[in-house]
Design goal:
- Two copies of one chain form a homodimer.
- Helix content of chain A is about 45%, strand content about 20%.
- Chain A is α/β, with parallel strands linked by helices and about 325 residues long.
- In chain A, the strands form three sheets. Chain A has a six-stranded parallel β-sheet, sandwiched between helices. In chain A, strands 7-6-8-9 form a four-stranded parallel β-sheet, sandwiched between helices. Chain A has a two-stranded antiparallel ribbon with strand order 10-12.
- In chain A, α5 crosses α12, α8 packs parallel to α9 and α10 packs across α11.
- At the A-B interface, α4, α5, β2, α6 and α11 of A face α4, α5, β2, α6 and α11 of B.
- Chain A binds a DNA duplex (30 and 30 nucleotides) through α2 and α4.
DNA sequence: CCGTTTCACTGATACGGTTCAGTGAACCGC
DNA sequence: GCGGTTCACTGAACCGTATCAGTGAAACGG
C-alpha cells in the first residue's frame, strides 16, 4: 500500500497560501523571501516534491534530453552514450537512452516517442539521416545530430568523413596495400551514404582495388561477415567502418588461424578504449570521443534553453597508428 | 511553429462520441466492434495518438521499465543494458537506462526519479543493496534486483557468488598460485559486501595469501589501480571482480612490460564478449549474460503486470578457461 | 492627497487523458 | 408483460501541476 505522496495543495494548506503561490515559491519566482522560506520548510516537512509527470503535462518541459542511438551494439556508441549521459548529469539534466537496433522504422518510432515524452532536446546518431520525418520532428523539438548531417536540426556535430577515409586509405596505400576490403555496417536505408561515397572516390584517386561489404550489427554479425570475406579471395587489408567491426575481423582471423597483421592487415574507425588493448593494437582513425561528447552536450543545452542560432561543429580525425597494419614490401 | 497535435476531444467530436468512449475504443474496451472501427478510422484520419504524459498522469502507468545501473563504465553492465533494452522492446515496453556512476547518493536520487516517472517496474543493479530507502521504494513500484539481493523486491536474479569465487580461486590454486591479489570495484558503501566476504572465506579454506584492493570505475581507473598493484610486490595472479577490471590489468601489464600470463596471471569475472578477443584470452567466470537478461525481463514483466508472487532466480556460473592463467610448477 | 506602479498573492483554467457512477435501450427468461 | 441483466455509451470528476489575468495593499511621485 504505497503511502500517498504529498501534493502541492497540501503544502498550500499547511502554509495557508494558494497552490499557485507554492508553485511560484518553490521555483523562486515572484514571492517574498519570507514566504519562500516558509514554503520550503513546509515542503520539507511533508516530504513534498513536485511530480515530474504533472509538471511535464502542465509546462511541457521535463529537463530530459533524449539520446537516440542507431545501434547500441556498437561499442563506440555505447561509450558515447555513457559520456553524454554523464556530462548531461552535470548540467542537471537526465538523458534517456534508447536504442534503435539498426532498424530505421524503429528509429522513427522511438524519435516520436521521445518527443511525446516532452524531452527538451534530442541527440541523434541516425542510421537514416535522410529520412523525411526528421524535418517535421525538428519543428517540435530541438535536435542535435551526431555523425551524419540531418536537415533542419538545431545543431550538428558532423564528422569530416572525407578526411577520415582519406587518412585511412592513404595509410593503407603508403603501407603498400592495393587490394582492400571495406566492411561497413548495415542498417542505413540509403545505399550511398556519404561515407561510402568518399570511399569509392578516394579509392579511385589512390588507385586502390576496393570491395565493399556490409556487416550486421553486433560482434557476432561482424565476425560472420569477416569470416566470409576472409575465406574468399583474401584482401591484404580490411578497412572497417567502426572499431567494433574490426573486433569481429580479429575474431574471424583467430578462428581461421590467420595472423593480424601478417596474413591480413586491419584498420578501424573510431578509436574505442579497447582498441589499444588488443594484440596487435588496432590501427584506427581517432575521432576524439570526449570532444564529440562535449560538443553535443553544449549544442543541445543551448538549443534546449531556447538558443536559436543553428550551430555546426566539424570534427576532424587523427590517425592512430598501432600494430594492425603491416608494411608490404613487394 | 509546431502544428498542434490532435486531442481525444477532437476525435470525439469527429465521431460524435464522448471522449470517454474514444478512450475506451482505442484501448479495445467496452465498445461495439463497429464504433471501434469508426474511432480507429477517425484517429488515423486526424493523426491522433494518445499523449503518453497525460496518460501517465491519469492512469499512473507508462509501459516503461526503468533500468538503473550502478556504473555503466563497466562493459558488462553495458552489455546487460543493451540486452535488457532489446528484450523488453519485444514485449512492447521501453527501457529507460540510467547510470548511477558508482555514486550511492545518485543511485538513490535516480531510483526515486524513476519512480516519479511512473515506470511500471524497476530493474536494478545496485552498488548499495543494503541501503534503507530500497524497502520504501519497493512499496511503490515493483523492483527486480540483479546481482546482490535487495530486501523487499518483487523478484531477484542473484548470482551464486560463493560458487563463482570458489570456481575462480580453486582454479588459481590448482594452477599453483598462492599469492593472489583481488581487485574489486569501488563504490559499494558497505565495506563487507557479500562477494568480498566469500573471498576471504574461500581464501582461508584454500590456504591462499590474499590481498584485496579496489579499483575506481572505468578502464583508466582500473589501469591505475593495477599499475600500482603490479609495481609493488607483484602477486603471481590477479583475480578481478569484473572483466572490465581485468582489461585494466592487461593495460597496466602492457605498460610495465609484463607478459600475461608468464609474469602475472589474470582471472576475470563476467565473461564479456571482448574477453575472448584479447591475447591471451581472458580466463574468467562465465555468468551467462543472456540467461540473466531473460530472467530479469521475465520477472519484471510478471511483476509489472500485477503478478504478486515473489520470485528468486539463482544464477550459477561456469569456469571459462582461456589463456590468461599459467600453471606454476615450483 | 490622489493617481499610478509595483509587489505578493489568489482564483480559475489549462494540460490531455482515464475512470467511476450512472443511464437508457435492448435483450432475456418465464 | 414484467423484473432483471447486459450492453454501449455519457457526464463529470480527477490526476498534480503551471500559468494567466486579476486584486488588494503598500509604495511612490508630484
Amino acid at each position: 500500500m504505497p503511502r500517498k505522496r504529498a501534493t502541492i495543495r497540501e503544502v498550500a494548506q499547511a502554509t495557508g497560501l494558494s497552490p499557485a503561490a507554492v508553485s511560484y515559491a518553490l521555483r523562486g519566482l515572484q514571492v517574498s523571501e519570507e514566504t519562500m522560506e516558509r514554503v520550503r520548510a513546509a515542503a520539507a516537512e511533508l516530504g513534498y516534491e513536485a511530480d515530474p509527470i504533472a509538471r511535464a503535462l502542465a509546462s511541457g518541459r521535463t529537463g530530459m534530453i533524449g539520446l537516440l542511438c542507431g545501434s547500441l551494439e556498437d561499442l563506440w556508441q555505447q561509450a558515447l552514450a555513457v559520456g553524454i549521459s554523464r556530462s548531461l548529469r552535470e548540467k542537471d539534466r537526465y538523458a534517456l537512452i534508447l536504442d534503435a537496433v539498426g532498424d530505421p522504422a524503429r528509429e522513427r518510432a522511438l524519435a516520436q516517442q521521445l518527443r511525446d515524452q516532452r524531452v527538451d532536446g534530442l541527440i541523434v546518431q541516425s542510421i537514416d539521416p535522410a529520412a523525411a520525418f526528421w524535418s517535421e520532428l525538428c519543428e517540435s523539438v530541438p535536435v542535435v545530430a551526431i555523425g551524419d548531417s540531418i536537415a533542419g536540426t538545431a545543431g550538428e556535430v558532423v564528422f569530416d568523413n572525407r578526411r577520415g577515409v582519406t587518412l585511412a586509405l592513404e595509410h593503407l596505400r603508403a603501407s603498400g596495400h592495393r587490394r582492400i576490403s571495406v566492411l561497413t555496417s548495415t542498417g542505413a536505408s540509403t545505399p550511398d551514404r556519404p561515407a561510402d561515397v568518399h570511399v569509392t572516390a578516394e579509392a579511385d584517386r589512390l588507385g586502390l582495388d576496393i570491395e565493399v561489404a556490409t556487416a550486421p550489427h553486433g560482434l557476432a554479425g561482424a565476425t560472420a561477415a569477416a569470416r566470409e570475406l576472409l575465406t574468399r579471395e583474401r584482401p591484404s587489408a580490411v578497412f572497417c567502418f567502426a572499431d567494433s567491426i574490426a573486433y569481429g575481423v580479429y575474431a574471424a582471423a583467430q578462428e581461421l588461424g590467420l595472423a593480424v597483421p601478417d596474413d591480413v592487415s586491419v584498420m578501424g574507425y573510431d578509436d574505442h578504449p579497447m582498441s589499444g588493448l588488443l594484440t596487435p593494437g588496432l590501427t584506427t582513425v581517432d575521432w576524439d570521443i570526449d570532444g564529440i561528447v562535449r560538443a553535443a552536450v553544449r549544442l543541445i543545452s543551448a538549443a534546449a534553453d531556447g538558443g536559436t542560432r543553428r550551430r555546426r561543429v566539424m570534427q576532424t580525425p587523427t590517425l592512430r597508428e598501432r600494430g594492425s597494419v603491416t608494411r608490404l614490401t613487394s
